[in-house]
Write a structure and sequence with these properties.
8 strands; Rossmann fold; 293 residues; eight-stranded mixed beta sheet; alpha/beta; globular; 2 domains; single chain; 11 helices
């Protein structure tokens, strides 16, 4: 089922579900109760649930890359240790480094695929799993979302900070670090732009909530910010963020993609907008190549 075939009210409910406002059962129940002429509201709702097997664009065994799961220390994080999916391009390196941060449900197959996409473009990519200290991504987003919400959020952010440091200093890294992330990962990209300050060379949040305006003065890296047009929750944080970026002389580019919804880059659900996702990713790759080479 395509985006145009789905009632906007179903998308609104799905947004609440994705952000933990309602659980899967309530999402499906509320959607099924909607009166929609000539179509099944429940079928619309079910079509929005991710189908990761169909969304893979680059195989784990692609000859252009080499991927493996790595463990590394994470002081003051959830458990003191972390695990992530590290993907390197073919060749000896060193390579510019890009941290890829997941949504609010752990390291699912879509984010792993994004890490492989980055490696194909010549970047050493690390996708950390914030759920690793409590067992790792459980294989489905519902349990993953519940697990992530149960964590101490400050310690979870510390795990992402330590992941960035691990990647930046990796033997295959050229020492120039970029960060990108989606939804919760977009907000965490903004957080790391503050926390890493001059250690970060480029940040690319996808539909990520803004950091506190008072912290923006710490940002030293140029930012490329991607927003969906129909994303009220996240977009409400942008105007004040832009004012703070300008006031502190932070370089940035911003794009709001017409006709898109939150999650438009994720090709595992009908929220995916192929044209916008490709354009945003092409811009991301060019931005990283400009600032990390």
């Amino acid at each position: 089922m395509k985006e145009k075939d789905i009632d906007p009210r179903i998308f609104d409910l799905y947004d609440d579900y994705c952000h933990g406002q309602i659980d899967r059962r309530e999402f499906l129940a509320r959607a099924g109760a909607l009166a929609i002429g000539g179509a099944s509201a429940l079928a619309m709702a079910q079509s929005l649930l991710p189908r990761y097997a169909l969304a893979q664009t680059i195989s784990f065994t692609d000859k252009r890359i080499k991927g493996l799961y790595v463990k590394y220390p994470s002081p003051d994080g959830t458990s003191g240790d972390m695990r992530g999916y590290l993907v390197q391009p073919a060749g000896q390196g060193p390579f510019p480094a890009v941290l890829v941060i997941h949504e609010n449900r752990g390291l699912n197959p879509y984010i792993e695929d994004v890490a492989r996409r980055a490696a194909v473009e010549g970047f050493l990519a690390l996708a950390p799993d914030g759920l690793a200290p409590i067992g790792g991504y459980p294989g489905n987003d519902d349990d993953g979302r519940a697990m992530q919400s149960s964590l101490d959020q400050a310690k979870l952010r510390q795990d992402m900070f330590n992941s960035a440091r691990y990647l930046k200093t990796h033997a295959l890294s050229n020492g120039k670090l970029g960060v990108t992330g989606f939804c919760w990962g977009g907000a965490t990209t903004n957080f790391l732009a503050v926390a890493l300050s001059s250690e970060l060379k480029a940040g690319v949040p996808f539909y990520g909530r803004a950091p506190n305006s008072g912290d923006v003065a710490k940002i030293r890296a140029p930012l490329l910010l991607h927003f969906a047009e129909d994303d009220e929750r996240v977009n409400a944080t942008w105007p004040d963020y832009e004012v703070a970026l300008k006031a502190n002389g932070v370089g940035y580019e911003v794009y709001i993609y017409p006709g898109t919804r939150h999650g438009f880059h994720n090709n595992s659900t009908p929220r995916y907008n192929e044209a916008a996702a490709k354009l945003a990713w092409d811009r991301t790759v060019a931005f990283f190549k400009k600032h990390l080479a």
